[in-house]
Amino acid sequence: MELTLLGTGAPAGLPRPGCPCAACATAARARARARAATALLVDGVLLLDLTPGPALAAARAGSSLHGVRQVLLSHSPEGPRGRPAPEAPAGLPAPVRVPDGRRLTLISGHRVRAVALDAPGTGYEVGGPDGERLLYLPPGAGPANLPSDGSRTPYALVLMDVLGRPDALARLRAAGAVGPTTDVLAVHIDHDVPPGAELHRRLAAAGARTEPDGATVVVGDYRAVPDLPRRTLVLGGARSGKSAEAERRLAAFPDVLYVATGGSRDGDREWAARVAAHRERRPSSWRTAETCDLVPLLTAEDAPPVLVDCLALWLTDAMDRAGAWDDDRWRSGEAPRALAGRTGALVAAFRAASRTVVAVSNEVGSGVVPATAAGRRFRDELGRLNAAVAAECEHVLLVTAGTALPLRG
Question: What's the predicted TM-score (pTM) here?
C-alpha cells in the first residue's frame, strides 16, 4: 500500500489561526513546518479524514482524488476558528463514519475494519491487496479492550496521536500490535511541542517519527526505527522538569518499573505531597518499587524498562550507610572506602545493564558552595557519581526551565 499524507496536523491545523504561542509562531515563520488537519490517501482509492482543500493538497503531493471510492471519517471534523469544517469536494463519495466492528471490502481489494476506541471517534484497520496492514487512530484516542499478553499480530504501520496518547502506544506494544519492525508515524500534531528538533527528539524517544504534509509512505517498506538508547541519564536542578522529562521518555512503553529511592518520611506532609504528585503523573500501568538496592534491578535480564528517580537520594542513603557524613570517619579513610565500594558497584551495574534504564539525578555543582564540610562532600560525591554514570550512558540530557538539552546521543 502507498499512503499519501495530505495533512498531518491537529484538526485545527498547525499553526492554529490566531494562536500567539511559540509553537504556532515557529510554524508560521517556517512554512515547511506548517501542517494541515490530518488526512490520508490510501493507494488513491481510500481517503481517511478530510483536510481543508483536499484536492489541492493531493495535487501538491503529486496525487489526485479522482480515483477515490470511499471517504471515511474517524472523528467529527473541526474547522479552524471562524471557518466551517472541511467538506468533501464535488465528485467524491459522501464521507461516512463506520460503526465499531463493521467491515468493508472495496472493489480495489482493500479491506477496512472499524476499531472501537477508548475515546470518541472510530479507528480504522486497513489491509491492502498485498497483505500489509495499517492502523489509523483519530486524535486523542487509543484502541479499547486490547489484550496485554502480546498475542496480537503487529501492524506494518501505525498512525496515531503519539504525543497526545503515549499510553495508547504503550498498550499497543503490550498487546503485540506494535512490534520492533512496526513503523509508528505521528499525526494529529498540535502546538503542544515546538516543531523542528524538539518534536523529532520527543518522537524518537517514543520509538516514533513524523513526516511533513505531502509525503508518501510505502507500507511495509523498511524504515530505520529510531534508535532507543539502552541507558539514559537525565540531569537538572530543583524543579527543572527533569523527572517529567524522564517519565516522558518511557510513557509509550508498557510495564515500566518506577524505582523511587527517596522512601517515605513519617510526618513530613510536604514530602508526601511531592511523592503523591509524582505518582499521579505516572501511567497507571507502571509498577513502583521504593528501594535503594539498585544493582540487582539494573542487571536483571529480559526485564522491562526501569526509571530510577533519583541518584541524589540514592547517594544520600549510600552516605548514611557508609558513615560519610561524619567528619572523623571521612578523614580516617574508612567512610570514603565504603562509599567508593557502593558507588563503584552502582556504576558497574549501569555498565552491565541489559534492560532499558532511564535515571534521574540532580545537578548541584553550579549553585552556591555549601556552608558545611558535609554539604560540600555531598556535592563533590554527587558530581563524581553523575560523571561516572554519564560515562556509561548512551544518552545524557540536561534539563533547565523545562527544556531538555542533549549532551550526548
Answer: 0.90
Helices 242-250 and 197-205 pack at an angle, to 10 degrees, of 60
Give per-residue pLDDT as tens, 97-114: 999 999 999 999 999 999
Cβ atoms of residues 365 and 383 within 8 Å = yes
Tell me, what DSSP letter sits at residue 74?
Answer: S
Q: Answer for the pair 1, 43: CB distance below 8 angstroms, yes or no.
A: yes
pLDDT at 101: 93
CA distance 84 to 11: 12
Parallel, antiparallel, or unpaired: how do β-strands 357-362 and 306-309 relate?
A: parallel
- Under DSSP, is residue 152 helix (H, G, I), strand (E, B) or coil? coil
Active site residue 278: yes
Count CB-CB contacts under 10 A for residue 275: 17
DSSP assignments along 280-298, one per residue: HHS-TT-EEEE-S--HHHH
pLDDT, greater one: 283 or 216: 216
How far is Cα 212 from Cα 404, in angstroms, rounded to an integer?
24
Distance, CA of 77 to chain centre: 25
Among residues 110, 188, 200, 278, the one annotated as catalytic is 278
